[in-house]
Design a protein that fits this description.
Strand order of the largest sheet: 1-2
Strand content: under 5%
Order of helices and strands: HHHHHHHHHHHEE
Number of helices: 11
Structural class: mainly alpha
Number of strands: 2
Shape: elongated
Length: 246
Amino acid sequence: VEGSSPLPEAAAAPVTAPVAPPSCDALVPTFIPTIRDLFTDVDHDAMMSHGLDLWDYANVKNMAKLIYVQVKSGEMPPPAFNRRWNQTYLATFKHWMDCGMPPGSPLPVPQCVQPAPTFYPVIKSMFRSLDHDAMNQKGINLWNYTDVSRMWGLIYMKVKAKQMPCANSGNPWTPLMVEVFKNWTNCGLPEGTQGAPYVPPPPPDGMCTAAPTFYPIVKDMFSQFDRDSMFNVTNGTQVTLDLWNY
């Protein structure tokens, strides 16, 4: 059109240099220790209940592509954990995949402290009838060896995080109880014999070198919920058993 200004030329699109893939040299991450340590014990125990051991090289190698998709999308770790992988974690895992997924050095076998606890009667006795009845409604029998040995990863995660027993059912497991359960898993989940009485191991050299006292140790093992549950009202008379009274 006569008298109009010429149209400006379109700006050239910026040239983006291709991103070079990570070099597969001596700095390639290995499964042990780098990749394994990306998975916390909570991640590990949560996935063990689904049959995937995130601390086992063969398991992670076989499922690496699916794992990468899940962590990149934020579906793993579960959003409830509020611990989404950052870009460094993602790049490290992808680098490991692209460079052949080298295993690294093997880890030592988890230590089993002897004498190894067995499910019957030690582990079973750690679950109260209240715990048993609550979980039985969800299809898990805490007094059954098969159920607990199948779901041990999820159970361990819950008791360690103090999410089990339920908050309204008394105190969570003590650190000692959590360690006993973990040692049972480290020792191969031995079953034991149903109906066998619980006999605690003898003190070293037959000596009671660190005997617990009722106050405060034994008393503190009973929660307010436990104490209240033992109170009965019969003919107007309260208290048949006070768990806080020596």
